[in-house]
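[job 0412] stage=fold_complex status=start
inputs:
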Amino acid sequence: MIEDRKLAVLRAIVEDYVATQEPVGSKTLVERHRLGVSPATVRNDMAALEDEGLIAQPHTSAGRIPTDKGYRFFVDRLTTVKAMSAAEKRAIAGFLEGAHDLDDVVQRSVRLLAQLTQQVAIVQYPTLAKSTVRHVELVALSTHRLLAVLILSTGRVEQRVIEVPVELTDDLLGDLRLRVNAAAAGERISEAATALGALPEQVGHDVTPTFTVVVAAVVEAMSNHRSDERVVVGGTANLARFGDNFDQTVKPILEALEEHVVLLKLLGETSSDLVTVRIGAEGPIDQLSATSVVATGYGASDDALSALGVVGPTRMDYPGSMAAVRAVARYVSTILDES
Amino acid sequence: MIEDRKLAVLRAIVEDYVATQEPVGSKTLVERHRLGVSPATVRNDMAALEDEGLIAQPHTSAGRIPTDKGYRFFVDRLTTVKAMSAAEKRAIAGFLEGAHDLDDVVQRSVRLLAQLTQQVAIVQYPTLAKSTVRHVELVALSTHRLLAVLILSTGRVEQRVIEVPVELTDDLLGDLRLRVNAAAAGERISEAATALGALPEQVGHDVTPTFTVVVAAVVEAMSNHRSDERVVVGGTANLARFGDNFDQTVKPILEALEEHVVLLKLLGETSSDLVTVRIGAEGPIDQLSATSVVATGYGASDDALSALGVVGPTRMDYPGSMAAVRAVARYVSTILDES
DNA sequence: CTTGGCACTCCAGTCGTGCGAGTGCCAAGT
DNA sequence: ACTTGGCACTCGCACGACTGGAGTGCCAAG
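[job 0412] stage=fold_complex status=done
writing structure:
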């Protein structure tokens, strides 16, 4: 039971500090939270918590603030993801309902997430890896160039300009289109790639080079990491919550947020159905060592296609953020499933 | 000649203040710039400049800083856009060369511009308004839904999911595709829209509703403002140059930068071949009253398709920014022309 | 019209000082 | 074995006074 109270104290410290952003002392603690004990008792517990490395004081004779380890403990053991209220659910659904476009869905999700959590939101575009090829369209741009447009089941569209070695005729283009679609349509892109690879061998000798280059471009477009790498960031204005001295705290974060490759690493390690929380220096990115990341996978039906989440100061409302991230991920998944 | 010196003083003040970010006094001024006169003389000139509203002092007994009006004067009369060095030109060309994709071009341009100017860069996607329709592709998604993909000469791709009232057959789809392309391909989108409008009347009574709804969706996709409205922002970390008190200065700017609609207004009023400079409160957006915008149109050949520019503190390096903006706009135009 | 001189202003940084929040420890109480 | 009130102690921080310096405006002389 003494253990229980210690944890209650930790929870209270975290909640208070998150709310006020100020180190919290024993006295204010017992005032605000109804722990049925005196400040002195709380002080003893605090000393113990400090020994365990869960809280720390910025300087002697200041209140305590949670350490990264303390937050970790809080998140792992002291928190249950609270469900969103019916009103919030309606708001989310309503906000995402109007989207008619993949871009639109992603865009709205970012905004929504940023607004709900009052933090920086990141949404990764649905990954190609697990989607199927709906259609491949080839359009002649000039005599030696064509545009390949790849339409995927997730609604994503990839495009490539391809230089071809021979002069393009309508017949050749038609043949190409037919064969490519026959081989690729309906397949998962990994399978489509192999199916396409066999194509050039099946056609007349004269057009083999053309087939080769086109197939290569289409395959490249399929497996292109750049497309997986697309992420959208929003709510950067919420970085204001970080407090002052911009240069040291916020600037590196903004820089990291522009490195989309970096963000993908951040989101990449999330598992599908669980909300992952990475606190402070736990993450792989130095520039974000003062921030926490709450993320989760999302996507149609069973397997996760992609990920979304929020980035904020370690001092953040974890339960709230986790709930919001989870809720948005679910709604986005539903919407993607429908279309 | 006294006028000449006054202007030289103004120029010197602007340059100094931009470089140091500190109010500049008469003494430091004569030291740094070789005006052949004494501080006292400069003081007289400064008093005159202040009367004219071109400079101001934050408080008595501090140096002077330029007012918005002063910057305006500086930009209009005291500055010639300096050409980029050969090395810089090569760097720009090299940076943009690798792009093979419209998205890529835009993305790289933003980065480049942000890096060159050390400020926030904004690039608007090429406008649809003046591009022509390359191809319209219709793909069946299910029995009553199809995906319309609109491929434009700029390389932009628009897509719409359309619900159709009748069951889709391959024949119907083929007919649709044929007719729509015949009407629209090669046309500017305004003309394509009218051409398409006539389509439903030319087909059999039974499929008219289908044609109507598909044509409507395609036309909507063409004229859709959302596509014109796409802008990409980069280099927000450079807002650190603003100095401190984040909340009051930087936060509203970040907020404004996320409102893409707002940014379009900002870019929208730029003329094609000239670099437009909007200083401080001259702009239409309150939140950006402490910033200046340097922008220009860009696009293939004669008519401007779109715009790009940078946003920074009024205290910015105008000649440098103008040069960079102009240079990048030119290179992007060239590249878009090629593809 | 320029220039040196001079009195004046006012910001910014420094140094003390006192207050208050918070702590740790101890002895007494339950 | 815990809890609790008391108490001395520690610092950070806000506040105020002070001062140095940069900068100004004005004036009279060149």
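[job 0412] summary: The mean pLDDT of chain B is 86.
[job 0412] exit 0
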